Amino acid sequence: MLKARKTIITCAVTGSIHTPSMSPYLPVTPEEIARESIGAVEAGAAIVHLHARDPLDGRPSPDPELFAQFLRPIREATDAVINISTGGAPGFTMEDRLAAPNRFRPELTSLNMGSINFGVFGLAERRGEWKHEWEKPFLEGSRAGFQSNTFAQIERVIQELHHGYGTRFEYECYDVGHLYTLAHFADRGIIKPPFLVQCIFGILGGIGADVSHLTHMRDTAERLFGDDYLLSCFAIGRAQMPFLATCAAMGGSVRVGLEDSLYIARGQLAESNAQQVTKIRCIVEDLGMEIATPAEAREILALKGGDTLSW
C-alpha cells in the first residue's frame, strides 16, 4: 500500500440512490448540495464526491447546468478536490454519465471497475408513503436492472477523461474481481499509479459487509499493486463507521456521506454530511492518525490541481 502520511477523508454528499422521502436532510437542490459540500470540507473532508439532482423532485440528473450551479460555489469557498461521478444513476446512458465530467474536466472522477447487480429494491419495502411518484418504481427497478460497466465502457472513460484531460480516478471496486480488472488496465499501461482503490461493502450484488472481506480485498490489492495504490473504503448503512474505523486502523483512507448512509447512529438520521465527517475525523485522530488537507490529498494522489476545472 502507498505509504501516505495522512488519512484522506472523502465525502459523498448526495449520491443517486437515496430518495427525498428517506431523509429531510438529503441535499437535493444545487444550493443544498453546495452548502453540504462546503460544510463537509470545513469539517475535514479533502475530497467531495458529487452527483446532481433535479431540484423539483430530487431525482438523479446528468445535466451539466445543474452541476455548474453547485461546482462554482464549492470552488469559490474551498480548495476541495472535486470528484464528479461517472456512475451516474440507473437508467443513465454513457453519454449521460460522461456529460458533466467532459464539460468540467475535473481532477478526479469515480470509475466503477465492473458491472454489478446493484440491488436497492429492499429500500422500497421499508416505506409506506412517498413524497414523489418516481421514488418507489426507481428503487424497485433495481430488481431487474444492473449497473453496466463493461471493459469497453471502462476503457472509454479512461480514454476520454484521463488521456483527454489528465483526470485521475477513484477506482470503485464492489468485489474482488474488480481489483483484477483494475490490474488488467494497469498491466496494459493505459493507467498509471498511484491508484486510489475505493473498496465498497454491503451493496446487494457486491461483496458483503464483513471485516474479513476488507482484509481479503486489502491483501489482494497488495499482491496486485504493491506500493502503487492507496486503500480507501466505505460500507453501506449500519456498517459504515465500523468499517471505516477498521480501514483507518489498517492505514487506509475513508469515505463518508449521505450517499452511503443516512444515519449518524443507530436509528438516528444524520442532520448533515459534516456531522458524519466530524465523527470519522474524531475516530481517525483518536487512532493516532492525521487528516490530509486537500493540498496534501492532491500530492498523495498525483492530481493535476484544483484550478483546472473547465467552465
UniProtKB/TrEMBL annotation:
Gene3D superfamilies registered for this protein in UniProt: Aldolase class I
Cofactors, names only: Zn(2+)
Annotated Pfam families: BKACE
UniProt keywords, alphabetically: Metal-binding, Transferase, Zinc
Protein name as catalogued: 3-keto-5-aminohexanoate cleavage protein
Superkingdom assignment: Bacteria
Taxonomic source organism: Sphingomonas canadensis
